[in-house]
Amino acid sequence: xxxxxxxxxxxxxxxxxxxxxxxxxxxxxxxxxxxxxxxxxxxxxxxxxxxxxxxxxxxxxxxxxxxxxxxxxxxxxxxxxxxxxxxxxxxxxxxxxxxxxxxxxxxxxxxxxxxxxxxxxxxxxxxxxxxxxxxxxxxxxxxxxxxxxxxxxxxxxxxxxxxxxxxxxxxxxxxxxxxxxxxxxxxxxxxxxxxxxxxxxxxxxxxxxxxxxxxxxxxxxxxxxxxxxxxxxxxxxxxxxxxxxxxxxxxxxxxxxxxxxxxxxxxxxxxxxxxxxxxxxxxxxxx
Amino acid sequence: xxxxxxxxxxxxxxxxxxxxxxxxxxxxxxxxxxxxxxxxxxxxxxxxxxxxxxxxxxxxxxxxxxxxxxxxxxxxxxxxxxxxxxxxxxxxxxxxxxxxxxxxxxxxxxxxxxxxxxxxxxxxxxxxxxxxxxxxxxxxxxxxxxxxxxxxxxxxxxxxxxxxxxxxxxxxxxxxxxxxxxxxxxxxxxxxxxxxxxxxxxxxxxxxxxxxxxxxxxxxxxxxxxxxxxxxxxxxxxxxxxxxxxxxxxxxxxxxxxxxxxxxxxxxxxxxxxxxxxxxxxxxxxxxxxxxxx
Amino acid sequence: xxxxxxxxxxxxxxxxxxxxxxxxxxxxxxxxxxxxxxxxxxxxxxxxxxxxxxxxxxxxxxxxxxxxxxxxxxxxxxxxxxxxxxxxxxxxxxxxxxxxxxxxxxxxxxxxxxxxxxxxxxxxxxxxxxxxxxxxxxxxxxxxxxxxxxxxxxxxxxxxxxxxxxxxxxxxxxxxxxxxxxxxxxxxxxxxxxxxxxxxxxxxxxxxxxxxxxxxxxxxxxxxxxxxxxxxxxxxxxxxxxxxxxxxxxxxxxxxxxxxxxxxxxxxxxxxxxxxxxxxxxxxxxxxxxxxxxxxxxxxxxxxxxxxxxxxxxxxxxxxxxxxxxxxxxxxxxxxxxxxxxxxxxxxxxxxxxxxxxxxxxx
Lengths: 287, 294, 363
Description:
The structure holds three protein chains of three kinds. Chain A is an all-alpha fold. Chain A contains 13 helices and two strands; from the N terminus they run H-E-E-H-H-H-H-H-H-H-H-H-H-H-H. A two-stranded antiparallel sheet of chain A has the order 1-2. In chain A, helix 3 packs antiparallel against helix 9 (195-223), helix 8 packs antiparallel against helix 9 (195-223) and helix 9 packs antiparallel against helix 12. Chain A is globular and about 70 Å long. By secondary structure, chain C is of the alpha/beta class. Chain C is 40% helix and 18% strand. In chain C, strands 1, 2, 3, 4, 5, 6, 7, 8 and 9 form a nine-stranded mixed beta sheet that branches. The chains are: A mainly alpha, B mainly alpha, C alpha/beta. Chains in contact: A-B, A-C, B-C. Chains A and B meet through helix 1, helix 3, helix 4, helix 5 and helix 7 of A and helix 1, helix 2, helix 3, helix 5 and helix 6 of B.
């Protein structure tokens, strides 16, 4: 009982299509693609001449590889945590029978989206700070007598980032789950599979496009994150984005900053390519 | 993104609801325990999502000069400061202007591009599609740094058009994501019918397509608006020395002084967000009643 | 019918947006190139306020030239570079920055040379105040502070050595991590027995060895003055390497701390004129105005930082005088960090020191 046909009817001719797409193409081409491409030559300049010095510098000093690795690690942690927290939630929402409750929960998931990242990071600063809610609460209960250092460390950054990324993980998974053909699940149950088995063998594999989308977005966005680590982190949570900002604004080493940016850019592209191989980006965009 | 998708889902799942009721009765006995655990877990996650966001609201009414919970006393002074002090009001107005312009431009360009992608012929479509979406995925600081160099050379730093361009670049991906999803979903036989009846492309678009993707446009518009209003990284680089946006003002206040006025600003943000969501659901309800009549 | 109502709603929304967007901007957008007022980059907050009251407003009263203070956030360098690149000079003066950064800016062509024909009253200022590219306005002192509750009279720490001595002086500490770690490392070397003149060029290995001992005990690596003050007020740390202005601020807010003047040193914060500014002459006049002892005293009264003109001390209320680095009692105990031997090394190696510090602190 399909209500729709997939929207693959071509209404516009080649000329019309190109005309329609051209404003965006031009805008992106001039103000986005060209600047990005010009990062490459800028990064290859050292004291006026062409040189790979900045790249050597990056890989020679252990600091930078360390930071890159740490950035990837934190992004991975955030992604995994978001997945573990997000999938069950998306599942409950998708299979909930009470329509009103489901709508309410949807609003709860969307609410963080609509409040700014800055506001949310700030909220966590306030919650985790020495005189913040958690410390005040624990002290008033007598569990601890000196406030704990919950802020300006990696855990604070993780908490903040998970809080911001969760909706990105929940929504794609929810969308895919909601659209699954329920008959498949029913068939499995009727054939004798337990709830768990049906989930593992039927539901989960079918939800993979949503999972792939959520995981990819979460990971990639986490790689480039700047605001939350800047506000919630400490010296031990220096990430690549903060490093780039320092080089640009404080140390004025623009060529080096360019090199770091290129490396970050290439890392991101590699990640996207890997996801494409594994999950297939087509599935995500045609969902 | 999900609102529009949710809309489409609502259209789709109406008949499905009939089937659901039958099944429930058979499955009642099984997996009760599992459901309870799942329910509790979901509840915890939701508390985690929602509470921190709204916690700032009561704290903004504190009498003290620093943030504390529970707030001490009740004072509107920080809200008053936010609404009257020039250093808050001007950036807010500028941010609103920027967001408005960005939204309009993004919606127009983005919808056009989405139409071309879904209903048109474009060579190398997949790559083009990815290219349009890429600003969302490239680390923002890299984009900011790259664009900054070009803007400086073109004297675009600190100008409203420059910032609109920058925000449009990162706003359009949202538009494309949502609108293409919407375009894929709905019944194209309607468009075919219109065409067969003699309407040209443009008329078909305005009379048939546009009303049907309206929820998507609204959702996309809201996303663009919020994205621009909230945007900090691009603005940090591109705003020059004499302009200030609201997030930038909040950021520097947070960095140098953790004071309650930021909490007041945040409160306004949150209330605006809740208001928007409520408004959105009203519009959705109206759309639903119109949509079902087809 | 419902449809058209909704459409009307939308269209009016859209029109409303567009109209809103096209209204002219507020007055804070300073007109470029054609200017009749001076734009000064300040650090905002109390510091900006102090500059406003002590220098900008009186200057305007006397000369009629308007002065506007603009906050820059943390990206002064980036903005300076952008201004030069786009030939759109939006700031005329940058304030209160260290020699190492200013030298970098000057070498990159961002700063004008000071016209000492106009700024001719630098005779009274502390040595090293009158540089090619800027004039010192105030001192930012670095000193040891300790919590008087944890270390009462008689048991108090007296030197940097004590800061690093966790056995005899236990407790969490605070140090800065806001860039320019040369002084942190020099303090480590001084604690290890070196005299100030022996600190530069930095012996990294030795300095980091000392720092390693204290690392687990640093509870707060502050990145802003406000953070430091909060930590002192909350008694989160028992000792800190602090800036004197903030320490005095904390004391006035009730923090139970005391400043140790022994081994204290200072950096001069310079005002510089941005290259290519249309208000060059007027900016120089403002720079000259900032050297006046009476004005500097007003500045100190508000923010706590000592002015670069020792004569300003006499204009202060008596209770504030003793705590000024330039007070006759103190002036021989404190030293300008940039006057130690090989100070130029610090300027030349800003990047490397930063890198080595980041490497150390990141682990």
